[in-house]
Amino acid sequence: MKPGDLVVNGSPGSSAMLFSLPMGKVDYLGQRRHLGYLSGIGVVIDVHRSDVKLMCGDVVGWCYVGNVKVISEDR
User: Fold this and answer.
1) Which of 9, 41, 51, 65 has the fewest C-beta atoms under 10 angstroms from its C-beta?
2) 15 lies in which domain range?
3) Arithmetic mean of pLDDT, 9-37
């Protein structure tokens, strides 16, 4: 996955949770806040290790790359 890719939830009926920070940048548990869910189509705007930062509507947050699948790649 790379910035510009369009993604959806990885499995039917699921909703990827979006967080304020990727797991690799969390120093303590309370630092990572839940911001919302991926609903519909999201755009990858950043990648950090095994997490991707998505923009979905008015929510921007991080989720595990395994929770989403690419539907269209930015070339």
Assistant:
1) 41
2) 6-68
3) 91
Q: How far apart are CA 54 and CA 63, in angstroms?
A: 8
How would you classify the pairing of strands 42-48 and 6-9?
A: antiparallel
**Distant-in-sequence, close-in-space partners of 11: CB < 8 Å, separation ≥ 6:** none
Q: Is residue 74 one of the residues assigned to a domain?
A: no
- Read off the pLDDT of each residue in 15-31 and give the average, rounded to a whole number: 90
CA 64 distance to own-chain centroid: 6
* Token pair for 46: 């950043």
Give the pTM: 0.90
Domain count, the chain: 1
